[in-house]
Amino acid sequence: MKSPLVSTNRPLFVNLPSAVIETAVPDVEGEVKDYQEQLKQMLKDLVKQREKDVEKPLPLMNQREFIQFCKTLYSMFHGDLVENDLFQAIATVTSLVLQIGEVEHRRHSSEGSEVSAEQTPEDAGSSSSDSDWTVSYAQILASLLTEQALVNFFEKPVDLCAKISQANQKQYEQRAGLLTLQQGR
Does this entry carry the keyword Coiled coil (predicted)? Predict the structure, then answer.
């Protein structure tokens, strides 16, 4: 649980008697800071703490990873009561995200071609990785949220133990099928 907004490790000294002030922790000049300065310092500490708590963004997903992600979603939807609606929704989202990635790819490629004209031939190889097709988690999430069938699917509670058991069984059956095919050759 996160700490309350005004929580800090610094004590706040307000209107203390002179005997207490003499025993309080002095600052550089030997005097206790007044409460406004203390509050400013507390706020600075809170800002530092919030900056430290900021989540790091997820790495960008390349096209191969995104396609694998879509395959995973298709396998999750298999056998659901509204399977056809989910397949249609994920097809729409996949198309949308692929278009977003393509636009970003073209934009980076055009920026890269302007930069590569200024680069020497040795430097040209380093810009090729910058122009790879990628999409962000936020773009994928925003696209998923446009389809109500997907929103409904992910909002409903799921028995994870049962889903994991089903996935394990499905993998076992697929491997057994492959072994049977290989032995038949």
Answer: yes
Q: Identify residue 163 by its one-letter amino acid code.
A: K
pLDDT tens per residue across span 78-119: 888 999 999 999 999 999 999 999 998 898 888 766 655 555
Give the Cα separation of 93 and 95 in Å (integer): 5
124 touches 60 (CB < 8 A): no
**One-letter amino acid identity for 144?**
L
Alpha helices (H) along the chain: 18-23, 35-53, 63-77, 83-118, 121-124, 137-144, 148-155, 160-184
Taking the CA of residue 8 as centre, how many other CA atoms within 13 Å lie in the half-sphere pointing to its CB?
A: 17
Rounded to whole angstroms, the Cα distance separating 47 from 39 reads 12
Please give the structure tokens belonging to residue 180. 């049977």
Q: Which residue has the tokens 């278009």?
A: 99
pLDDT exceeding 70 applies to what percent of the chain? 69
What is the Cβ-side half-sphere exposure of residue 184, based on CA atoms within 13 angstroms?
6
Integer distance in angstroms from the first to the last C-alpha of the chain?
A: 59
Q: What is the CA radius of gyration of the chain?
A: 29
Most distant CA atoms of the chain, gap in Å: 95
SS3 135: strand
